[in-house]
Amino acid sequence: MTADSEVMRPPRTSLGVLGWLRQNLFSTWYNALLTLFSAWLLYIFLTGFLRWALTVARWEVITANLRLFMVGQYPPDQVWRVQVLVSLIALLFGLSWGIWKGILRGLAIGLATGFGLLAVLPFSPGVRIWLFSNLIAVFIGFIAGHVLSSRSERGRLWLARGTLIAWLLLFPVTVVLLHGFSGTLWLPAVGTNLWGGLLLTFLLAVVGILASFPLGVLLALGRRSELIVIRGFSILFIELVRGVPLVTILFMAQIMLPLFLPPEVRIDRVIRAMVGITLFSAAYMAENVRGGLQSVPEGQVEAARALGLSGPLILLLIVLPQALRAVIPAIVGQFISLFKDTTLVAIIGLMDLLNVGRAVLANPQFLGLHREVYLFVAVVFFIFSYAMSYSSYKLEAALGVGER
Amino acid sequence: MASEMQNSADDIIICRDVHKWFGDFHVLRGINMTVKRGEVVVIFGPSGSGKSTFIRTLNRLEDHQRGQIIIDGIELTNDIRNIEAIRSEVGMVFQSFNLFPHLKVIDNITLAPIWVRKWPKEKAEKIALELLERVGIPEQAYKYPAQLSGGQQQRVAIARALAMQPKIMLFDEPTSALDPEMIKEVLDVMRELAESGMTMIVVTHEMGFAREVADRMYFFDEGKIVESGTPEEIFNNPKEERTKEFLSQIL
Lengths: 404, 251
Known about the structure:
By secondary structure, chain A is an all-alpha fold. Chain A has helices at 16-24, 29-56, 60-64, 66-71, 79-100, 103-120, 125-151, 153-179, 197-223, 228-242, 246-260, 269-295, 298-306, 311-326, 328-341, 353-362, 370-399. By secondary structure, chain B is α/β, with parallel strands linked by helices. Helices cover 38% and strands 25% of the residues of chain B. Chain B has helices at 2-5, 51-57, 80-87, 105-115, 121-134, 150-162, 180-195, 207-213, 231-236, 241-250, and strands spanning 11-22, 25-36, 40-44, 66-71, 74-75, 90-93, 168-172, 199-203, 216-221, 224-229. The chains are: A mainly alpha, B alpha/beta.
């Protein structure tokens, strides 16, 4: 290879700080003007906000009511059950991070950081120790998962299976732990009417997400079915539910449903809200998934058929993986909006995070502290919505969306 | 006539008076064809002549509405078990490759053997690697289809079809979507396959390949077989005016 056939390097494009400023912020006189104007606005806003947040704001409304915000009316002497649950989740997150690495890394580290930051705040010693041990639990889980899974491929497989099963078991464990049994001493029953705050918001969102996803996929498939009854039912359900506001569905579940059921059958209020949210979300999910199904070329199905694969296998192995991968952004977007829509359960009297905020504001002791309370609620919602959004980006990158 | 209706055990594909309509459009108008084990058949003709539709009826990606198709002793009917049995005996290669983009090359190849033939993963992967060796791209096994050139993708598609150890291979214009310099690498693989004794039905306009490899050639036009014969007969001594005209356009 001669000297001049050497591969040419691209020209240097780094500018340095001053160069960057000049190119991006002060390239023309009007650009400079806009930059200065924005900087002035930002200054006004930030100083105003910081002055308020640090001197005027009475954050004790948050700290004093933190338990209400987190778990609502859940009996204080039973809050340890929620704490155990959170620690369990922290441990499982750590373990999963150790086994699968990848996209779980950011989430697990974010979770650990959250516990760490909270542990610094002036809570009671017991809470701070609990928060700090959650931080430790994430890392213990990680180390355990990492060490055990890197020993042998077999061990990794078993551990991965075990962890998956643990995640699946988490749901019944949650129900049993939170609800307990009436008549027992160490795990007395706590009715769902006492569940509230972030705990309730989470439960509604998680159940809604986990249940509406498979239901939505089934409805999307049903809408494309060749069987007229199934197709008809799917279309009817999707269009009916999409044509009605969520508030209406929640009202229906709360007020109408008992009229149709025999008086001795009484379904729990929280469960009715969960069902309403799930059905609502499933209809939208179905349309998202249908978009994905349409994006899979006919040739894929033909190739799979030509190989002798049966219909269900083609769906499971060829069509759905490609269809769902194509609509991850839409699906996660819908999960985020479902998470925020759970606040609507306030109108049927459930005490979710937002409604707890309203109840706190009704307390004469904390009159007029709207800004503190709503800002706090907004930040909490933002953190978890952003976590979902972040996982979506990571998942897309990991699955290579778009590199067909 | 009587002798024609008698099938020797050597006849692996028998088509009798096959008709098909797309709506009111009569695509196939009475196709009769018999292919013996190990024969290589080339089908050519203008676009819209029904040649692709015909080859797709052979593994029932399209159904025929009249007549009879018998593959390796099994008649193609609406019976889904027959269809799946035949599809696993008949490999197919498409013009647009149709590899599964979400699976690595090796998983594209092992998918059907594992799920349809119920082979253990190790066996399927061993055979997949051998097949990749055979089509000349063993080093691409753990890449995704999108990372391969068109010619490489088509060779993976051939390996994927061969992994089911089919008795018949159908090729539907396998080189039409390829750049000129990639056509050769795919034809080389097909040539080797023909020499190994595989029964092949190939829809193609690669007349060099046909002349060299085909045992019989069929010229399709307007849903009918206009003329058939050995490459010798078709190229040197076509009987029908339509065949002469078409050959003069593509040669």
